[in-house]
Design a protein that fits this description.
10-stranded mixed β-sheet, globular, single chain, 5-stranded antiparallel β-sheet, alpha+beta, signal, 420 residues, Rossmann fold, 15 strands, Asparagine synthetase B
Length: 420
């Protein structure tokens, strides 16, 4: 009798295991209580060699994971919504996704990328959205800066984020407003000491060398993501390689005569035909940025994510996964990109047509890829120097922050050639 009961208990256990063999992490608007930490769960699974799939355009870009007790527990601890589905339900979902009539795709996530964040060692008086969301989502990263970049340590990483850096050597063009403020003076001094230590006469030369090392990282197959001033200042530094574009208050001597005519746009990643802002008192690098050109009130400041074919163009589809196509705008030193200055081979993934501006762009350089995302903080409309960091517990379903995490996760996917 005991043997018979044990037999039926075993049958019931096996039946339950068959019926509940997958975890679906939904990413739609109404079901998922913490979109941002869901990326962290998926990253954690890949890092532990669990098989995972990204279901593009299925319920907001959901994740399919194996049903394991430790994954369930981790979801519960982190407050991530999940659903247990059977083999039959999983098959039904995958069949729906595979249908030619559906703009969906299931992408296998193979290996967790090694992540580096290019950021100063000391604390800055402003926060960085990427560092913030990586920490919140519990995705591990390594902070690196100029010494590591120039000693070729980028070779240890797959994905690199550029903190809100000024690669032109003009200290963020903060001169007019902050030249007498202690943090600005200290930052300038630290940058000069570091440049000297690394064998450069000027900070602009040292930052230019760093930018070119990062360029090589991308060309060699790396993934690079940049926000705010790190986008246009990076491209400007590449285009101005070997040209002195800094005035005396930045590097001790006058800028090079007629430097605008010497800019080589072939060297830049995303932007062309831009004109540099010569005046040191103007808080702007060039006319790439739309901050002074836009007339959009805060309550109407939104940009639209483009829709791509998930089956033919999985990369931009991954980068645009969200529970809404309309994303709230936000400002920064580089608030938006003037579409006039974007190269034709660069893909615009998010734009505000009312203002003729791009907010979210992507491209390929050599064997690698880059994404530029304008603005400073997706949940802080007009972030000011000295403002406190955003509390992401209050914005755990942020569409703007999801775009950052799409970029973190997509290097883990098996790639198909971009068709668009």
């Amino acid at each position: 009798m005991l043997l018979k009961r044990s037999f039926w208990m075993l049958i019931l256990f096996v039946s339950f295991s068959v019926k509940a063999s997958f975890i679906l992490v939904p990413m739609d608007e109404t079901t998922q209580q913490n979109h941002l930490k869901a990326y962290g769960i998926t990253f954690w699974c890949i890092d532990k060699n669990y098989k995972a799939s990204w279901l593009l355009n299925y319920r907001g870009g959901s994740f399919l994971l194996p049903d394991a007790p430790e994954i369930r527990k981790e979801c519960q601890i982190r407050g991530v919504s999940f659903e247990i589905i059977s083999d039959a339900e999983q098959t039904t979902i995958l069949n729906e996704i595979a249908s030619p009539s559906q703009n969906m795709e299931a992408v296998i996530l193979e290996k967790a990328p090694k992540i580096a964040v290019y950021t100063p060692k000391g604390k800055q008086p402003w926060d960085d959205a990427v560092t913030l969301v990586l920490t919140y989502a519990e995705i591990p990263f390594t902070a690196i800066y100029d010494e590591e970049v120039l000693s070729d340590q980028l070779l240890l990483f797959d994905w690199l984020h550029l903190h809100h850096e000024d690669f032109t050597g003009q200290y963020g063009k903060f001169y007019s407003s902050y030249k007498n403020i202690p943090w600005y003076i200290e930052q300038k001094k630290e940058a000069e000491v570091l440049a000297t230590k690394l064998g450069f006469k000027k900070v602009s030369q040292e930052k230019g060398a760093v930018a070119n090392k990062i360029r090589d990282f991308v060309i060699g197959g790396g993934f690079m993501f940049a926000m705010c001033s790190a986008t246009d200042s990076f491209d400007i530094a590449l285009a101005a390689t070997g040209i002195d574009i800094c005035e005396a208050m930045f590097d001790g001597d006058a800028s090079e005569a007629s430097y605008q005519s010497k800019i080589d746009y072939n060297n830049s990643f995303a932007f062309k035909n831009f004109t540099l802002e010569r005046r040191p008192e103007v808080y702007e690098f060039s006319d790439i940025d739309m901050t002074s050109k836009r007339k959009i009130p805060m309550d109407k400041d939104y940009f639209t994510l483009m829709e791509f074919s998930a089956k033919w163009d999985p990369i931009p589809s991954m980068l645009c996964q969200n529970h809404t196509q309309l994303v709230k705008g936000f400002m920064g030193q580089t608030t938006a990109f003037d579409s006039e200055f974007i190269k034709s081979n660069v893909l615009v993934m998010g734009s505000c047509e009312l203002n003729g501006e791009a907010r979210y762009i992507h491209g390929q350089k050599g064997k690698g890829m880059f994404t530029f995302y304008s603005g400073h903080d997706p949940e802080d409309f007009q972030h000011q120097v000295g403002d406190p960091p955003t509390v992401l517990d209050l914005h755990s379903n942020s569409p703007g922050y999801r775009l950052i995490l799409n970029n973190v996760l997509f290097p883990a996917a098996k790639k198909k050639k971009l068709k668009t």
